[in-house]
Design brief:
- By secondary structure, this protein is mainly alpha-helical.
- The chain is built from 49 helices and seven strands.
Length: 910
């Protein structure tokens, strides 16, 4: 406020000690809340200190219809004060509110008497008349002020008025008289400049706050009232608040005509700026005065071309609005934005907040909006909208379609919630009230939740429906991916789809490509088609069953051994679009896929973390039968990390019985088998592994890519029981399969084959397996194979090679958090120098050059200088020089002390 008071002091020098000489008038002109009232009070205080009688009045738009309302305020300051002017006939009636003159002549006579009384009194007692917001004065009082201004030059009366000349005034004659009067001086006020705001910020908050002055100016536009309250908010709370900044903003609106509040309320509801014509439709006012209001708000710094400068102001306006008016504005806004083709999400939010869908909105239009909203990450908005629509819809057929979309939207948030709609929707299908696309979506949801009775009934209905012929191949493909025993093998239609609707949908093609991988193995074509599906999901196409479609496509890559591509999709495009907090099921599915990928790479800690995240984003109940995927990953990761107690806890969890009839149950059985194997329950482990094989055979999936390498697990169980012959049979079966998951499965087979072979043959088999696991980036299997290789070297008497390989195995196991391995491999006394726990990495690693780090990484893995030289195509002398510098930078003496963190570079170097 110092800036305003400085202006008053400056004007004081211009007008003398009394500020305004008798016979003079000042008009303080400026937009809202720019200091006019503060300056007016300053004049009044200075005049009173100089011995003048000061009479004041504040005009208000709400009192414009009150006759002589302003005169009443002035009279209480003059005629009612001790020693004031003598009583004027008719004035007591005005003060008591019993007079309501309607005769213009009578009003003119009374105003004349009042003016004469004041002028006469001022002959011996100078007066200062101060009227705030004079444009809001009532017509009778304006007539009085008009007469007084005309006679001001011959009286010992000074007058100060405030007004905003940018806005129209109902009392036009008074404004014109003020502007043309020879005794009138006009003082223009406006918002502070950015430099002036910066000075105020520094003065109020200190020099350290000067960098914030730009933000303060942006939030206040230089408006003095907003600046004052914002700085107070910053001092007390550190941010703009509704009770401070927001209330000041509201007070500016309530002091003006209702149109100000109407316009700003409409903008608050819409949430962004609109042209005057649109605001006219929303508020019922004419565009021209609305344009003037917008200009006034911008000129005052309250708003920025129709946009709120602070969210606190918008929220204050919304909270100040009556509920009915707010709902009406939301309804009108929804219609306006729909007609303008605005985003469906924006329209849906208004419809939800309207409380009741307008009768003019057709169910088809509501479905269109809800479908568009459900495509993005606004499933909760779609749920609210569809729930309201369902409550109001009287038609059964339309209700069925709305309920299907509601179930679909709720599915994205929590499939357990969506199950409440399945029974009525199943009845709608049987009664012929639900369309084919919605019926197929219902089938997919039932498959996920394990409602086998309803699934079989719905399948029978769809298989008998001639209209569903084109969809049946996609349905059977989805069954192959979930409940293969329910699927009927059908020849695929041309281009994997019949109707345009089938070709446009993503999930049927995702199911088809995974089914092809399960039945025929991975090919270049299946990889291409899987990536096609993922690309469309990235773009947000086809909201129906997005989660299952993404999971099908990712599993098609994982089962076929293309975890590199699956990982790239998870960490790249899908990771960016699937991380929204409004779609927990998408987050859960993505986390489960990442967990399976991490598990196959031997990143056990990450696999456990991702599977826990999958079971957090969506509860086990929400996962339905698909819980076997994340739960299996968690059990297997915990088992391999040596956390047997935690793994046992998850094994003891209740799972749906239908899970064991689904393909997801294979992951759970395989993981449980390894838990039993680690616990020494070899027969139970063997039973779980063999059950995986029996199910795949019964389902007709034994010729494609196995979801889990059950033969390897069963062979390990036989070896644990000492039955090498049975183990060897299973290994040869795995190696002879035409479709495996590639190098990884071959490496696992070679490792077990070595265990059943002669000591002389083992190093050859194991070295080949080491190369395969290194290529596949599978740290867990690599660690186990290196350990077996060290034992093979030891058996052949190659002690030095055995120690190097043992050290490398320990480091790799440590790197992948396989405590079940490296704790078992802790060296005996005579091996204490062969495997030494590596010190914790420090800042020294960051000082290594790229070449030094490459050499150190290979040395940490146990490679000799000659082997490192061969891998990096350099001389052994160069390797030795690099290692010397590495030891010096890391302050170590032996390669056994190299930090295991250096192993992170292995992927690039191998």
């Amino acid at each position: 406020m110092d800036t305003v008071l400085n202006a008053a002091a400056h004007l004081g020098h211009a007008f003398g000690d009394s500020l305004v000489r008798p016979g003079q008038a000042l008009l303080l002109d400026g937009p809202l809340a720019c200091g006019k009232t503060t300056l007016l009070r300053s004049f009044a205080e200075r005049a009173a200190a100089a011995g003048r009688l000061v009479i004041t009045a504040t005009c208000s738009p709400s009192e414009r219809d009150l006759p002589f309302g302003v005169v009443s305020q002035l009279a209480r300051g003059a005629w009612k004060s001790p020693g004031g002017p003598p009583e004027v006939p008719g004035l007591p009636d005005i003060l008591r509110g019993t007079s309501d003159p309607a005769d213009r002549a009578e009003i003119a006579r009374l105003c004349h008497r009042l003016c004469t009384s004041l002028i006469d009194y001022a002959e011996h007692t100078p007066l200062l008349l101060a009227v705030d917001d004079v444009r809001h004065s009532d017509p009778a009082s304006a007539h009085f002020l008009l007469q007084l201004v005309r006679r001001l030059d011959s009286a010992r009366i000074a007058a100060v008025f405030t007004d905003d000349l940018s806005l129209p005034a109902p009392t036009l004659p008074l404004r014109y008289e003020l502007l043309r009067s020879q005794c009138m001086h006009r003082i223009g006020l406006g918002p502070l400049t950015p430099d002036e705001v910066a000075d105020v910020v520094v003065a109020e908050l200190g020099e350290t706050a000067s960098p914030r002055s730009g933000d303060v100016y942006a939030a206040t536009g230089g408006n003095r009232l907003l600046l004052h309250t914002l700085l107070a908010d910053y001092r007390e709370h550190g941010e703009a608040r509704q009770t401070g900044y927001g209330q000041s903003f509201l007070s500016c609106l309530h002091r003006n005509e209702p149109i100000f509040l109407d316009v700003v309320r409409a903008l608050a509801v819409v949430g962004f700026s609109l042209p005057a014509t649109d605001l006219a439709w929303l508020t019922g006012h004419e565009p021209e005065p609305i344009g003037q209001v917008l200009a006034a708000l911008t000129g005052a710094g309250l708003m920025d071309e129709g946009a709120f400068r602070q969210e606190a102001a918008r929220l204050s306006v919304l909270n100040d609005m009556p509920a009915r008016a707010r709902r009406t504005l939301h309804q009108r806004a929804a219609r306006l934005l729909h007609d303008q083709g605005r985003p469906a999400t924006t329209i849906a939010r208004h419809l939800v907040r309207a409380g009741r869908i307008p009768d003019s909105w057709s169910p088809e239009l509501l479905l269109e909006v809800a479908e568009q909203v459900a495509v993005g990450e606004e499933a909760s908005v779609a749920v609210d909208l569809l729930e309201q629509s369902l409550e109001q819809c009287p038609h059964q057929e339309r209700r069925a379609a709305l309920q299907a979309k509601l179930a679909e939207a709720e599915w994205k948030i929590n499939p357990s919630t969506a199950t409440r709609h399945h029974t009525p929707l199943y009845g709608a299908v049987r009664a012929g009230r639900l369309g084919l696309p919605d019926s197929v979506t219902l089938l997919m949801q039932l498959l996920w939740k394990g409602g086998l009775t309803e699934v079989e009934g719905l399948l029978a209905h769809l298989r008998e429906d001639p209209a569903a012929t084109d969809q049946l191949h996609a349905i059977e493909a989805a069954l192959t991916c979930t409940y293969p025993w329910l699927a009927e093998r059908r020849p695929a239609p041309a281009h994997h789809g019949g109707s345009a609707a089938t070709r446009a949908a993503v999930w049927p093609r995702a199911g088809t490509v995974l089914a092809d991988v399960l039945t025929g193995g991975q090919t270049h074509d299946t990889v291409r088609r899987a990536e096609e599906v993922l690309r469309e999901l990235q773009l947000g196409h086809d909201p129906a069953c997005q989660e299952q479609a993404g999971l099908f496509a990712l599993l098609a890559l994982v089962y076929g051994g293309r975890i590199d591509l699956a990982s790239a999709w998870c960490e790249g495009a899908l990771g960016e679009t699937g991380a929204g907090p409004h779609v927990p099921m998408r987050q859960a599915v993505l986390a489960a896929a990442r967990s399976e990928i991490a598990l196959r790479r031997g990143d056990l800690a990450e696999a456990a973390e991702r599977s826990r995240a999958a079971l957090t984003h969506a509860s086990p109940g929400a996962w339905g039968v698909a819980v076997g995927l994340p739960l299996g990953s968690l059990i297997l990761a915990c088992t391999r990390m040596g956390r047997h107690e935690e793994a046992g806890f998850h094994v003891a969890q209740t799972v749906p019985n239908a899970m064991f009839k689904s393909s997801y149950g294979l992951h759970y059985l395989y993981a449980r088998g390894h838990y039993f194997l680690a616990a020494g329950r070899h027969q139970a482990a063997l039973a779980d592994f063999l059950l995986c094989g029996e199910l795949l055979t019964d389902w007709g999936l034994s010729s494609g890519c196995d979801p889990v390498p059950w033969r390897i697990g069963a062979a390990e169980a036989w070896l644990a029981q000492g039955n090498h012959d049975r183990a060897r049979i299973l290994v040869y079966q795995q190696l002879s399969r035409p479709h495996t998951d590639g190098a990884r499965a071959r490496g696992q087979s070679l490792r077990l084959l070595a265990a059943t072979s002669s000591a002389k043959r083992r190093p050859q088999l194991l070295n080949e397996a080491v190369g395969l696991f290194t290529e596949q980036e599978d740290k867990y299997d690599l660690a186990r194979t290196l350990w077996d290789l060290s034992q093979a070297y030891h058996a052949l008497g190659e002690k030095k090679q055995a120690r190097r390989t043992m050290r490398r195995a320990w480091h790799v196991a440590k790197m992948c958090d396989a405590a079940s391995l490296y704790e078992e491999w802790l060296p005996a006394d005579d091996q204490s120098q062969a495997v030494a726990p590596a010190p914790k990495a420090d800042a020294g690693i960051e000082r290594l050059t790229h070449s030094e780090r490459r050499v150190a990484s290979l040395a940490a893995m146990g490679y000799t200088n000659r082997e490192i030289a061969g891998k990096l195509y350099v001389t052994a002398s160069t390797v030795e020089q690099h290692l010397t510098r590495v030891f010096r930078k890391l302050d170590i003496k032996h390669r056994e002390q190299l930090p295991t963190e250096l192993y992170a570079d292995r992927m690039e170097l191998a």
